[in-house]
From TrEMBL:
Protein name: Prepilin leader peptidase/N-methyltransferase
Subcellular location, record wording: Cell inner membrane; Cell membrane
Substrates-to-products reaction catalysed: Typically cleaves a -Gly-|-Phe- bond to release an N-terminal, basic peptide of 5-8 residues from type IV prepilin, and then N-methylates the new N-terminal amino group, the methyl donor being S-adenosyl-L-methionine
EC number: 2.1.1.-, 3.4.23.43
Homology family: Belongs to the peptidase A24 family.
Residues covered by the Prepilin peptidase A24 N-terminal domain: 2-79
Species whose genome carries this gene: Cellulomonas dongxiuzhuiae
């Protein structure tokens, strides 16, 4: 939840081109600096009843929601991945997923300041995840990661060239990062993760149109569905792909 508290800062400041380090957190209404005891994840928001201590301005419920969701996702990631060298890599994926999803919903952008450095960070963490003491590095997993990144990037590039209005550059850049993770897990994870993004995004678009909240030309943020699809690919991609192959053969 502490990480989630920091992600709230990232979500607010990065799209505005501001530093996530300085100045210290302050109320956006009265600019009063937030003291440490008013910055305890979830608890402070509940104690203050969702208002600034100084000016009583409302504090969005999204702040404690992001903190709580991040904490739960960290616990879930530890349960799925286990206490292995792969855990830091996937905790990082969870962190950028929460931040990017919230930013894309807010401003329909996936900032380069988060996406581009993630290639290097994810690469280093996945190399660490591929290392087993006494056995060395699993080069097959790293080759799959590189191939997965290239394959997913190429897929999104083709889609962007065919239909530029339907695929943003941010989505294209993010695809390579997600391909790293999905490829590292396995080919089944890559296939399921890629397909799930379009399936979920398409279903969401249909729901919006049926509800009268969107038309055929309405721009819908696709980043959250890419990220959710990747999560499904990591968690259930391999067993789901194996099941499909069994029934198909």
């Amino acid at each position: 939840m502490v990480v989630g508290s920091f992600l709230n800062v990232v979500v607010w400041r990065v799209p505005r081109g501001e530093s996530v380090v300085r100045p210290p957190s302050a109320c956006p209404t009265c600019r009063a600096r937030i003291v440490w005891y008013d910055n305890v994840p979830v608890v402070s928001w509940l104690v203050l009843r969702g208002r600034c201590r100084r000016c009583a301005a409302r504090i969005s419920v999204r702040y404690p929601v992001v903190e709580l969701v991040t904490g739960l996702l960290f616990v879930g990631t530890a349960l799925v991945v286990g206490w292995t060298l792969a855990l830091p890599a996937f905790l990082y994926l969870v962190s950028i997923s929460v931040a990017l999803a919230a930013i894309d919903v807010d401003v329909h952008r996936l900032p380069d300041a988060i996406v581009l450095p993630s290639y290097a960070v994810a690469g280093v963490l996945l190399v660490l995840a591929s290392w087993t003491p006494g056995e060395g590095v699993d080069t097959d997993a790293l080759v799959r990661a590189a191939a997965g990144s290239g394959a997913l990037f190429l897929l999104y590039l083709v889609l962007a060239l065919i239909h530029p209005r339907g695929m943003g550059l941010g989505d294209l850049k993010l695809s390579g990062v997600l391909g790293l993770y999905l490829g590292w897990v396995g080919w089944g994870a890559l296939a399921v993760g890629a397909f799930a993004a379009f399936l979920l995004g398409g279903l969401y678009g249909v729901v919006l149109m049926v509800a009268g909240r969107a038309g055929r030309k309405t721009q819908v943020p696709f980043g959250p569905w890419m990220l959710l699809g990747a999560v499904l690919g990591v968690v259930v991609g391999e067993p789901l792909a194996a099941w499909y192959i069994r029934i198909a053969v």
